[in-house]
Amino acid sequence: MDERKVLLEVTRRLRTRFGPIREGLGSDPLDLLVRTILSQNTSDRNRDRAYAELRRRFPTWEAVLSAPVADVERAIQGAGLHHQRAARLKHVLRRIQDEQGELSLAFLAGLPDEEAAAWLLSLPGIGKKTAYVVLLFGFGRPFFPVDTHIRRVTRRLGIVDSRAEPHAALAPLVPPGTEAEVHLQLIRLGREICRARRPRCPACPLADLCGYARSTHPNQARMGPPRKEVQ
Q1: Does residue 231 sit within a domain?
Q2: Whether 228 is catalytic
């Protein structure tokens, strides 16, 4: 089975296990950009805590931009690396304000896909994952962001070679129009079952497709996907 067919089967099984997932579509692009900056190299819980505290202290992005950097650092310290993140966040907001005259990414809607991606990637500290999250969930553009969970899951499944750049390798395999669902389903699998440490292979609906599971739990992999969650 080639990689595209494997990913289709993966998506079908995860939809059966988790149900349809389409959360986050239509989110405000600038909110997404800030949240994703805060998520870099930290847990979802730390990101959410830092984002909530940032919005509690500064109800608008204009307030963040005008605040002393030390105040922004204190607001987001729960995410870790708060000195670097605060400086980066203020730099990004200043760039948007200076170029657009307002703190909004709405102008990206008028740019072709690749130009919009290139503009986001020109921001300090912004990589493909962050740019593609903004374009996919903020604008419905056909980009496929790859985070640490997706990278781990697809490598264990053998869909992506460990030496390949994951965005370039996965984008051609994802059926058009399913980018958000596939992204969210793979992340959920990575968080709940295909964890970095002590992955729960016996509970995984993909065990029989996965080279990693076959090597670590050969009997379970031969049996195929479990009918129900194994606690």
Answers
A1: no
A2: no
The 8 Å CB, 24+ separation contacts for 131-136 are 132/167, 133/32, 133/36, 134/29, 134/32, 134/33, 134/36, 134/105, 134/108, 135/108, 136/179, 136/180, 136/183
The one catalytic residue among 5, 90, 128, 129:
129
- Domain containing 219 equals 3-22+145-223
Which of 89, 123, 139 is the last residue in one of the domains? 139
Per-residue pLDDT of the chain in tens (231 residues, 90 and over written 9): 589 999 999 999 999 999 887 676 668 999 999 999 998 877 888 888 999 999 999 999 999 999 999 999 999 987 777 888 899 999 999 999 999 999 999 999 999 999 999 999 999 889 999 999 999 999 999 999 999 999 999 999 999 988 889 999 999 999 999 999 999 999 999 999 999 999 999 999 999 999 888 888 666 555 555 544 433
Of 139, 162, 184, the residue that ends a domain is: 139
Q: What is the CATH number of the domain that holds 7?
A: 1.10.1670.10
Residues 106 and 54 in one domain: yes
Q: Are residues 150 and 49 in the same domain?
A: no
105 and 133 in contact (C-beta within 8 Å)? no
